[in-house]
From TrEMBL:
Keyword Phosphoprotein belongs to the record: yes
Annotated keywords: Phosphoprotein
Phylogenetic classification of the source organism: Bacteria, Pseudomonadati, Pseudomonadota, Alphaproteobacteria, Rhodobacterales
Ranges where the Response regulatory domain occurs: 140-255
Matches recorded under CDD domains: REC_PhyR
Organism for this UniProt entry: Thioclava arctica
Name of the protein in question: Response regulator
C-alpha cells in the first residue's frame, strides 16, 4: 500500500468508525467491521486507484458489511440500544443511505457510488427512511423562539408532523421554567432571544436539569456562534431563513436517534 493511500485512509478512518458505530449500534461491533475493511483493503488496493479515496473506503466497508449479512451488533449503551431498535425497523438499505446522508454528509450521487445503486434509487432510499421515521417517532417538543411569527410557523410544521408542543418560550428564564413544568422530548431553539439572553444558555440550563440525552435542534440566523470548530458542536443546526423540509428532516432525525450527540460524536 502506498504512503498516499495509507495517509488518506488514516485521515478518513475516524469517520468510517463513526458511521460503523451508527450502523451497527455498537462501538465494538462497528470497530470490528472497520478493522475487517482495512484487512480487505490490504489485500486489494486497486479500488483506490483513480477513485475518490473516501468513497472507496466507505464502499469497501459496504462490501464487507453486506457479505456478513448487514448485521446489528450488541448495543453498548441505552442510547445506542434505542437508536438500534428504531433503525432495525426501517426498510432494508434505507438506514445505510440515511446515515451516509444525514450523519456523514455524502451527496446522493456519492451514496449511489458507495452502495452501488443509481442516484435515483439512493434518493428513494433516503426518502423512505425519512417517511418511516416520521411515522414511527412522535413526541413532545418545546420551542425557544422570540419572534412570534417564526414561532407560529415552526409550531405549525411540527404539529403537522404529528408532534405535540409543550409551549413557546421567548427568553432564557421562560425556557427553563417551561421545561421544568413539562419535560420535552426535543427542544427547537433560537440563539438570540427577546431580552438579549442566550438560547444556548437556556438549552444548557435545561440539559443540566434533565441530562445530556435530550435532543436539541438549533434554528438560528447566527450559525457562526455554534460552528466554532470546538467540541461539542450541534448535530442539527438549521440556518434562517429555513425551509419546511429542513425543519421536518432535522426534527425527525433528532427524535429518531434519541440524542443529537449519540451518532455524531
Amino acid at each position: 500500500m502506498s504512503e498516499d493511500i495509507a495517509g488518506t485512509i488514516g485521515a478518513n478512518l475516524p469517520y468510517l468508525r463513526r458511521y460503523a458505530r451508527a450502523l451497527t449500534g455498537s462501538q465494538d461491533s462497528g470497530d470490528r467491521y472497520a478493522a475487517a475493511t482495512l484487512e480487505a483493503i490490504l489485500e486489494d488496493t486497486a479500488p483506490f486507484e483513480n477513485n475518490d479515496p473516501k468513497l472507496a473506503l466507505f464502499h469497501a466497508f459496504h462490501l464487507v458489511w453486506a457479505s456478513a449479512g448487514s448485521p446489528l451488533g450488541e448495543p453498548d449503551s441505552r442510547l445506542s440500544a434505542s437508536a438500534q431498535d428504531h433503525m432495525s425497523s426501517l426498510t432494508p438499505n434505507t438506514r445505510e443511505a440515511l446515515l451516509l446522508h444525514s450523519i456523514e454528509g455524502f451527496r446522493v450521487e456519492e451514496i449511489g457510488t458507495i452502495m452501488q445503486v443509481d442516484s435515483g434509487e439512493a434518493q428513494e432510499l433516503i426518502d423512505i427512511a425519512i417517511r418511516e421515521m416520521e411515522s414511527s417517532v412522535a413526541g413532545k417538543i418545546m420551542i425557544i423562539e422570540d419572534e412570534a411569527i417564526i414561532a407560529m410557523d415552526i409550531r405549525a410544521i411540527v404539529e403537522d408532523m404529528g408532534h405535540s408542543i409543550t409551549g413557546v418560550a421567548r427568553t432564557r428564564t421562560e425556557a427553563v421554567d417551561l421545561a421544568a413544568r413539562e419535560k420535552p422530548d426535543l427542544i427547537l431553539a433560537d440563539i438570540q432571544l427577546a431580552d438579549n439572553s442566550s438560547g444556548i444558555d437556556a438549552v444548557n440550563d435545561i440539559l443540566a436539569q434533565f441530562g445530556p440525552d435530550l435532543p436539541v435542534v438549533f434554528i438560528t440566523a447566527f450559525p457562526e456562534r455554534l460552528l466554532t470548530g470546538e467540541r461539542p458542536e450541534p448535530a442539527f443546526l438549521i440556518t434562517k431563513p429555513y425551509t419546511e423540509a429542513q425543519v421536518q428532516s432535522a426534527v425527525s432525525q433528532a427524535m429518531f436517534f434519541s440524542s443529537t450527540e449519540t451518532l455524531a460524536a
